[in-house]
Here is the input.
Amino acid sequence: MINILEVNETNKMIEQEMLDVRTITLGISLLDCCDTDLDRLNTRIYEKICRTAKDLVRVGKEIELEYGIPIVNKRISVTPIALVGGQACHSPEDFVTIAQTLDRAAKEVGVNFLGGYSALVSKGMTKAERDLILSIPQAMASTERICSSVNIGSTKTGINMDAVKLMGEIVLKTAEATKDQNSLGCAKLVIFCNAPDDNPFMAGAFHGVTEGDAVINVGVSGPGVVKHALEAVRGKNFEVLCETVKKTAFKVTRMGQLVALEASERLGIPFGIVDLSLAPTPSVGDSVAEILEEMGLESVGAPGTTAALALLNDQVKKGGVMASSFVGGLSGAFIPVSEDQGMIDAVNRGALTIEKLEAMTSVCSVGLDMIAIPGKTPATTIAGIIADEAAIGMINQKTTAVRLIPVIGKDVGDVVEFGGLLGYAPVQPVNKFSCADFINRGGRIPAPIHSFKN
Amino acid sequence: MNKTIITVVGKDAVGIIAKVCTYLSNNQINVEDISQTIVQGYFNMMMIVDTGNASIPFGDMARDLEQIGQEIGVHIKCQREEIFEKMHRI
Here is the structure.
């Protein structure tokens, strides 16, 4: 039988160490909404989302109440809209109407974000996919809750450099289109290499075509819990350190698994995966950077940071995999800058640069995330950063992503506020040397060889 | 069997257990186990109760007990047992 110490341990994690379920994300396939008529397509999309997700927020709140565990976000991901809208949309403006429909549906069912305004162009691009990509700036400027993502490369296909170049321009245009809100549109736009089909985390969530009609995916969190557990083993060797992270990840994930199964049963929608990510928030004590510093770094960004992050990421997976029947999504440690107070502090004290963050992304989940850069950064430079990140993902067979915010009118030394979970960020300097001739070549980088691993 | 864990944390005072138990018995909720400790002067109690025959829904019970807690100056929380079971048992 459960004893009082175990009960107290769990409740301390929740009340003092900010343990929570970060998101219950309901994936909805919109493939059966496809139509040649745009109005009819919009109506069908709206109706399907409202019908499938009508109980999502209520069930989330019920679970929160009964188990005493906060579920911070209830969200929706949908089939990449470039695939759904292909028949009906003949211009970027047509796609914008779908974004607005999705936004209305998200507000109607009460979710704070809806992801899937996406295109998968890792090898080539159809006209519909190009139109969707061209519509992103306007779509982001005319909606509140829609998140967009574009997959521009994979280990199997190589990198679509035409798409990389285009996305460099689109990121800048999105920043320009939302400059009244500190270029917030870019905080809802992710460029992926090896994008997973079942990621529950925004802004990169979409419901992949390999998925069923509807699915429940859950993202757990808990950097504060790991940090606290490590405080008890200060100065101990790496074996003890790793065991501690692993055990903690197990406990955190078990809770996610429970919430996922409950939500799945109550909604009558199959359970997909638990995403084992350590997702920070701007609150003090809810930071991945603080975990790395607790391991013995004076500041995140110091030599040893990449090794510490690699260790953390691997142990989180090892502990989490046993705790859940299905693991998926991004699963690892997130290292956004604006959403993690420890990362912000490290940037401010000059310890953490974009180049070091890039190195860190080769061993953790996701990539260059929520980094504010000067608004005058050229599109080709942004494309170069995207290409670098995609190359790390392609060669290492892992997901990588870029979510940069070139803040129009701001430069190095300024601080930008995004609000809520998106936090705030100091504008970071970008390498000033040009890669324009490289980016302007056009075409594709071929898929890498899978032998001679050196 | 619908087991719920009720935790009571706060400054010790006369009648805490009595108040909680009276409420539970009025609503057909059976107490199966009680354990308590005093941690740094704070009263810390855990009850395992069976809500299988309860005459009220879970949400009402949680709200009522929270209210009773506020009246006597302690923090009362109700959670289904599975969250602890899953986290601490393989």
In short: Chain A has two domains: 20-193, 217-442.
